[in-house]
Amino acid sequence: MESGQALRAAWEWHNDQPFASGPGELGSYHASVAEEFEEGVRIADASLKANPNEFLLSNNLTFCLLKLDRVTEAAEILGEIETEGLDSATAATYIATVGLLEFRRGNPDLGRRHYQNAIQRSRSPSHRMRAKINLAVEEHRAGFFEEAMRLVDEVLAAASSSSDPEAKAWLDRLPSRG
Contact, 11 vs 23, CB < 8 A? Predict the structure, then answer.
């Protein structure tokens, strides 16, 4: 299922079950894959009303807000996330989001350290690949072109063996050498 279709299906699911967290989690993730960050904010926000302490909803909302450069709002939400008891995969996701926040705050060294920590902690090849892609984007955006290109090469070398169904959408975000 393509991300736009998945997002529409998530809204239908949310409308049928407004108290479920799944539609917001799925919808906000697919909105971010499709780079429809405003939609990601909307569906995560709608689902958070009934599920205010749901980690993935808050994290996905933060990610979408940061991609929209709404840093102050994102920092508030990220600061409210309860991190005690997160499993290793969830902790790696959270740490990567903190890395994105630091890049958007203008702290690339701290952001880079958070992303590298998240990449090391993650046991999932597709999660590591996504974190490296997002790190490459932020490095490029911050003017660290050499570091961004090193990450691009690393990601492309690993991508050939990826079984991630959304890999192409994520790979399309990589900065180009041109």
Answer: yes
Residue in 67, 138, 133, 135 with CA at minimum distance from that of residue 106: 138
Span 1-27, pLDDT tens digits: 576 677 788 878 888 888 888 888 988
pLDDT in tens, 67-79: 999 999 999 999 9
Domain 1-82 and domain 85-178, same fold? Reply is: yes
Could you say which architecture CATH assigns to the domain 1-82?
Alpha Horseshoe (1.25)
| Residue keyed to tokens 């239908």 | 12
**Ramachandran region of residue 174, left (φ > 0), alpha (ψ -120 to 50) or beta?**
beta
For 85-178, CATH number out of 1.20.1560, 1.25.40, 1.10.1740, 1.10.150 equals 1.25.40
Residue 168 to residue 100: CA distance in whole angstroms:
21
Contact (Cβ atoms closer than 8 angstroms) between residue 163 and residue 126: yes
Question: DSSP secondary-structure letter at 53?
Answer: T
Per-domain boundaries in the chain: 1-82, 85-178
Specify the pTM. Answer: 0.91
